[in-house]
Predict the structure.
Amino acid sequence: MSADSAKITTWMYLIRHGATANNISRPPVLQGCGINGPLVDIGLRQAEETAAFLAKIPLAAIYSSPLLRAMQTAEKIADGRQLTIQPAELLQEVNVGRWEGKDWGWIEANDPTGYQLHHTSPAEHGYPEGENLTQVQARVVPQLEQILDAHVQQHVAVVAHNVVIRSMIAHLLELPLDRVGHIHHDNCGITLVRRRNGKTRLISANSIFHLTSETPRTHSGETY
């Protein structure tokens, strides 16, 4: 490998969408890929603050989950740039199955067996009638690797979702998927991924210092 090729660096900014009504409700409600609501005011502010932070980054492309909350966030980032948002179907949020529209307290009380199985091993026991984390990671990682392949020596932004981004972080850190619950990713938090010399690495996770409108956290952090 030549000295020049060793210097080739590709940067990916993985961004979680801004907050929705389900994210800010207390307790938060699982929306997954089945509930396709818009950003609320705080979510729009988060998206605007993220766009302002990225304004000086020479983005070559912007990809987004096709869900409305992600596309609205991506639109703020694309504003003023000569870029068309590229939808990425495989980056939509996890399918939460029959738990869609429910909060964790309700799930624990009404589906205790499913709740226990999921919290013991989400890699194997996912969301009933939905996906498990192994299935999510299997679609997400190749899609993000493909995007990196398509933008060698460029900067690219990707707007996605909580479980999607956490599954990629787990992959990069070689962390078992059953530990993904220990990873928190805020609305409009930015995770920075670098590919250099053929190696893809996590540089930073869930950076939120650019935000003045942080979504309140809960004890579980499961604000889908």
Observations:
- The first helix runs from residue 3 to 6.
